[in-house]
Amino acid sequence: MRWIPVAVLFSILTSCSGDDSSWRGLIGKCANPRSGVDPITGNGYPDEKGTLDDEKKFLKAWIDDTYLWYSEVPAAEAAQYTTATDYFDVLKTTQKTASGNDKDRFHFFEDTADWEQLSQTGVQAGYGVTWALLATRPPRKAVAAYNEPGSPAANQNVTRGVEVITVDGEDVVNGTNVDKLNAGLFPAGINETHTFQVLDLGSTRRTVTMTSANVTGTPVQNVHTIDTATGKVGYMLFNDHLATAEKGLVNAVTALKAAGIADLVVDIRYNGGGYLDIASELAYMIAGAQNTNGKIFEQTIFNDKHPSNNPVNGSLISPTPFHTSTVGLSLSRGLALPTLNLAKAYVLTGSGTCSASESLLNGLAGANVQVIQVGSTTCGKPYGFYPEDNCGTTYFSIQFKGVNAKGFGDYSDGFVPGATTTGSFAGCKVADDFSHALGDVNEARLAAALAYRQSATCPTPTSSALLSGGLSGEGRVFKSIFQTNRILRR
Amino acid sequence: MIAILSAALVMASAVPARIVNPTPESRASLAAAVQAAFNGAKVPLADDALTAESMLVIERAAHRDARGLRIQGRELSPPERFQLVKSGGACVLVHERTGRRFPLDHTDCVEVAAGE
User: Fold this and answer.
1) Omega before A139 cis (within 30°)?
2) Which of chain B's residues have a Cβ under 8 Å away from the Cβ of A125?
3) Looking at the structure, do residues A128 and A207 belong to the same domain, yes or no?
4) Do B65 and A484 touch (CB under 8 A)?
5) Residues A228 and A175 in one domain
6) Is A396 on the interface with B (CB under 8 A)?
7) From first to last of its 490 residues, what are the pLDDT tens digits of chain A?
8) pTM across the whole model
9) Could you tell me how many CB contacts below 8 A there are between chain A and chain B?
10) Which of A45, A119, A353 to mutate to test the interface with B (most CBs of B within 10 A)?
11) Are residues A225 and A350 in the same domain?
12) What whole-number distance in Å separates Cα of residue A419 and Cα of residue A417?
């Protein structure tokens, strides 16, 4: 979260950075200036009367200066675009990755008022269930991926693998009223009551009614050990790099260390990232002092115009170290972190494993910790940005890349389990198995990790049909009410 | 001078605290304090906020893109934090970044015991 807007830093920047780029002088010149006070800073908005052209000039200058791939942005005639956001949409690289994906899949903008919405860490309106959408168009399939302890979903036993059949009477599989489906599955606020017909894993149909509430997410769950013939294996489900994860991870590692585990399985299949410091802390807790001594966790690299200083805040570019003590996100700052001192880590991944979560894998590899990856390909986001507000719109444009202690950060197509390309990890491709609880030794990904630990071999790929009710696959997992598009579709 | 000394003594005796027996009124008071700290912006809080610990952490709500992925997946800046303290019998919410203090009405709190 960036609490001091860039505009406030201008005067600092102009004195400490040699590059007083023109975008700083163009910011806040708006066709429709805002008035009033920014609720986060308490300062008046910096807006003054300008024109649409001023807003476009700002965007062009900002991209030219700070965009990671500024030299690949195609020429575009600003006058052809009727809004600033239309123009922003084309100010990005059109190149492809090696696999044919768009190189930049993260260019984005949002109303600043929406972007600045705050909440107690991990608190959001809902039932406390994370849905996995295995098919978003007919015939649709929506199942529970996991729930939050003590939530309305947990109280109604809407656990992993429970399939939603109807929402307020509308058929999920083939129904035409998708607005009704989306409204019921993803309530916009608290105190919304909706009725669902669900199918339990045991094939029991039942009706549940849930009322949305402010649910507190528990980012680290299901911490336990698994007895094997070759020692105890620790397991933790780590779902979000929230501030509260600092405390959860320290408690988890402390408990697993006390249990004397020989190996660790970290389940981050649904972890889309968050605080990079959390990833660094966990990497250190896994690897320990000896493995990380003298190494950095992640180095940030900006475009070639800015080899030394961060172009946004002007500071000298310095790496994120392996934090050896708490940074103070949800615990007091400076507490020594417990360590497992492992030379190898088993990590369960999915397509939702993204950004700071991918940094965890890459950072461990940089410290020569062997990573065994089981699951599916990660999202492929070794990048980050500093959101920039201008005239009420916040723009997100990739500005830096993160590399590990070995200088590796080229995973824009994601980490592929078992691939042999540079930077990849040994392991197994295994579909997500919604027919077993997370942390259950029979859950396909965890079972594969445990088997790989014994024999360094992968299971024969299992078709969806062979798993209970066809409940496997990848799907898309949705956690938040802050979505940009509809989720279930016609 | 006396007033300054009194204030200093009150500050010195402030100890980390947690809320006990929360009520609709105490929740409203906490919500109002946080809202005031953010210049009127409403911030969703859990009903059990500050009942288990003295630290309240506020983040930007996690926004996700059309694929369900966190937009800000590499967050580099720290969250906002508040500490609840018991000070001279009053429950006071302290905004760490600004140092602003917000006494909470209708709220009972107790000192956080060591190890809590």
Assistant:
1) yes
2) 44
3) yes
4) yes
5) no
6) yes
7) 434 443 334 333 333 343 445 899 999 999 999 999 988 888 899 999 999 999 999 999 999 999 999 999 999 999 999 999 999 999 999 999 999 999 999 999 999 999 999 999 999 999 999 999 999 899 999 999 999 999 999 999 999 999 999 999 999 999 999 999 999 999 999 999 999 999 999 889 999 999 999 999 999 999 999 999 999 999 999 999 999 999 999 999 999 999 999 999 999 999 999 999 999 999 999 999 999 999 999 999 999 999 999 999 999 999 999 999 999 999 999 999 999 999 999 999 999 999 999 999 999 999 999 999 999 999 999 999 999 999 999 999 999 999 999 999 999 999 999 999 999 999 999 999 999 999 999 999 999 999 999 999 999 865 443 444 556 667 677 665 443 334 556 6
8) 0.91
9) 165
10) A119
11) yes
12) 6
Cβ distance A274 to B68 less than 8 Å, yes or no, reads no
**A173 and chain B: CB distance < 8 Å anywhere?**
no
- Please state the length of chain B: 116
Distance CA(A356)–CA(A245), nearest Å, equals 13
A-chain residues within 8 Å CB-CB of B55? Answer: 330
> Could you give the C-alpha distances from A299 to A133, A302, A383, B60, in angstroms and in order?
35, 10, 11, 25
H/E element, A49 = strand A48-49
The verdict on a CB contact (< 8 Å) between A355 and B58 is no
Domain count across chain A: 3
Which domain covers residue A134, as residue numbers?
123-216
Report chain A residues whose CB lies below 8 A from the CB of B43.
118-120
Sign of CA dihedral A136, A139, A145, A148: positive
Read off the tokens for A417.
């389990």
Would A394 be classed as within a structural domain? Answer: no
Query: Between chains, do A354 and B38 touch, taking CB under 8 Å as contact?
Result: no
* Angstroms from A350 CA to nearest CA on chain B: 12
